[in-house]
Design a protein that fits this description.
heterodimer; A: OB fold (Dihydrolipoamide Acetyltransferase, E2P); six-stranded mixed β-sheet; five-stranded antiparallel β-sheet; B: MetI-like fold
């Protein structure tokens, strides 16, 4: 268990700046999710933490010790790859034992640890099987057992759930988080799936174009996005962003309500919206609208409870309102957030 | 609707059974004519008393040819040498091919140059290569001997002296060693390409995972790379073994089986006996001698590969 510190990390491949100056500090026992679209540099950053790539500039510190130029095996970092990277010619038990063998752990201790890890993940019946005979979920558990077996100082996960079925994935998410809580090992979790980042991370770092755009708890990122990228990247559907009085105003679809159904005060943003489409999502409806006043033609999204949606028809025009407390303002030139009310 | 149906013609391309037969036919005819027929002919010859002067195969003599070949003094030597040369070539080639594929699987400056260098022997005309090796290991003008003399390993008063030459083709073990060296040189490119294909098909994740798991270079090589390469190594071994075991050109241009029968190999001996010596039936018997063993080895190797892959 240890802290992880990244100082001014850069990685350039020729003229491509894959990672362009990242500073991050991860506390002991913390679960940090690194979230970003593909090509944002999150995988390269993760590979530098593991020691599979050497930074062009900057420092990596694990537990306060600089490890920037150490090979992976000198870092005691465990990693679970997206593909799980199980050794195909070894049975499950040998796969799990491999990191221990590489560290010359005595046989008796090795066997005990393999048993312990297998029991923890509930894969004892699979120990004699080869990876080719395992399902996706089983492979993931074997990869987790192999990562866990040697008490690493740091866990690195590279989209470990993306090759699982949707149903297995939700289950695996909570299992993974429980595993982290039980072991207390500092964890870096790389993903492009915001549900995983929001659901599992103590904090999330959002990356774009090789830079960290914002670091914070899931709630902070959702409620107080630092810029328009974070606002439009996080949330399904994302924040509505409108050009207003030389600024960009943003609000979450769940706060955009018909004026008749909301108790919006004087500071509320009032909008005339033509309903284009109503989509049934089960617990709620998604409303696709078009702005009628101001920036005409702009598309808007709203979420409506069934009782509210019952009063809406496609083609109708309604007045919608967003309470002032739910409005976020951004600079239209830089995209950075400006404090509420500042004009 | 009706018009579009009429426009679609159902031709021979839709009849998969017929199409398959037609497309396989050339290969089948080719194999039957150039492999099957000579093979049957060889069996018939080996069971007859045919000679160059009297090539009829109607006179059946049973296994007499095999028996008489077995009793010749050259036979144990040729068999031993064939096995030694094949095994030694196999081991050296596979070790070097694995090493080369490890090298070529990595990215480094000037890689293209090494790639060309490694493939070059394969692109070289056999006749040129033969002359090259004849001169390189010439009994009087060998540049290798010259280098050894310059660094005082060869010549009067040195450990390999007192002669000024090693006479590669004139001594039993140097002769066999030379044949192995030439075989390795000419077959290494093929083996390397086969092994490299296998090496690059192993996902990179696995090597990185092993690195993160704490394995050093040799642990990765012997616990990850080689086991993962095993099926493809068997394939490379089979190709190499069959090409070496059935080859007579290398021995024919170098030692010619001498001195005596000291470096004789089965295929060249079969050629000398059957074609040069005129004893067609005995030559055929020699050529057929290793067939069952080779077949068994090939089948065993293939089964091993399939079993390893299906597990």
């Amino acid at each position: 268990m240890a802290t992880l510190e990244l100082r001014g990390i850069k990685k350039h491949f020729g003229s491509i700046h894959a990672v362009d100056g990242v500073d991050l500090t991860i506390a002991e026992g913390e679960f940090l999710a690194i979230l970003g679209p593909s090509g944002c540099g999150k995988s390269t950053l993760m590979r530098m933490i593991a020691g599979l790539e050497t930074p062009s500039a900057g420092e990596v510190l694990i537990g306060g010790q600089p490890v920037t130029h150490l090979p992976p095996r000198a870092r005691n970092v465990s990693m679970v790859f997206q593909s799980y990277a199980l050794y195909p010619h070894m049975v499950v038990a040998d796969n799990i034992a491999f990191p221990l063998k590489a560290r010359h752990v005595p046989r008796a201790e090795r066997e005990a640890k393999v048993k312990w890890a297998a029991a923890l993940l509930g894969i004892e019946p699979l120990l004699k099987r080869r990876p080719a005979r395992l399902s996706g979920g089983e492979k993931q558990k074997v990869a987790l057992a192999r990562a866990l077996v040697r008490n690493p100082t740091l866990f690195i996960f590279d989209e470990p759930l993306s090759s699982l079925d949707a149903q297995v994935r939700a289950m695996a998410r909570s299992e993974l988080r429980q595993l982290h809580d039980r072991s207390g090992i500092t964890t870096v979790y790389v993903t492009h799936d915001q549900l995983e980042a929001l659901g599992m991370g103590d904090r999330i770092a959002i990356m774009k174009n090789g830079r960290v755009r914002q670091v914070g708890t899931p709630q902070q990122l959702y409620d107080q996005p630092a810029d328009t990228f974070v606002a439009s990247f996080l949330g399904t559907p994302p924040m509505n962003l409108l050009e207003r009085d030389g600024r960009i105003v943003g609000f979450r679809p769940e706060y955009l309500r018909p004026a008749s159904a909301s108790a919006a005060g004087a500071d509320a943003l009032r909008l005339k919206v033509r309903i284009i489409e109503l989509e049934f999502l089960g617990a709620e409806w998604q409303v696709y609208g078009q702005l009628e006043n101001g920036a005409t033609g702009q598309k808007l999204l709203a979420k409506a409870q069934p009782a509210v949606a019952a009063g809406l028809r496609v083609g109708e025009q309604h007045e919608f309102a967003v309470a002032g407390a739910h409005l976020r303002y951004f600079d239209s030139a830089t995209g950075l957030r400006i404090a509420n009310g500042a004009h | 609707m009706a018009r579009t149906e009429a426009a679609v013609r159902v031709g021979i391309g839709d009849r998969e059974g017929l199409l398959g037969t037609l497309m396989l036919a050339p290969a089948l005819v080719y194999i039957a004519a150039l492999v099957g027929l000579p093979f049957c002919l060889a069996i018939a010859l080996s069971l007859s008393s045919a000679t160059i002067g009297n090539p009829g195969i109607h006179h059946f003599v049973g296994l007499a040819n095999f028996a008489s070949v077995l009793h010749e003094s050259a036979f144990p030597l040729a068999l031993r040498n064939s096995v030694i040369v094949t095994a030694a070539t196999l081991i050296v080639t596979l070790v070097l091919a694995t090493a080369e594929s490890e090298l070529l699987a990595r990215d480094f400056r000037g890689k293209w140059f090494w790639q060309i260098l490694i493939i070059l022997p394969w692109a070289m005309p056999v006749s040129l290569a033969a002359v090259n090796w004849l001169w390189l290991l010439d009994s009087e003008f060998s540049p290798i001997d010259w280098i050894l003399r310059q660094i005082h390993l060869l010549g009067p008063g040195t450990i390999w002296g007192p002669a000024n030459h090693l006479y590669y083709y004139g001594r039993e073990w140097l002769g066999l060693g030379s044949i192995v060296a030439i075989n390795v040189w000419r077959l290494l490119p093929l083996a390397t390409i086969i092994v490299l294909a296998g090496r690059t098909s192993i996902p990179r994740d696995i090597f990185e995972q092993a690195e993160v798991d704490g394995a050093g270079f040799f642990r990765v090589l012997f616990r990850i790379t080689v086991p993962a390469l095993l099926p493809i190594l068997v394939v490379a071994a089979m190709f190499t073994a069959l090409l070496v075991f059935g080859d007579m050109t290398v021995v024919a241009i170098t030692t010619r089986g001498g001195p005596g029968y000291a470096t004789q190999l089965l295929p060249y001996w079969a050629y000398l006996k059957g074609i040069e010596g005129g004893a067609l039936s005995e030559g055929a018997a020699i050529a057929l001698f290793m067939f069952p063993i080779l077949l068994a080895v090939a089948l065993l190797a293939l089964r091993m590969v399939y079993r390893a892959e299906s597990r």
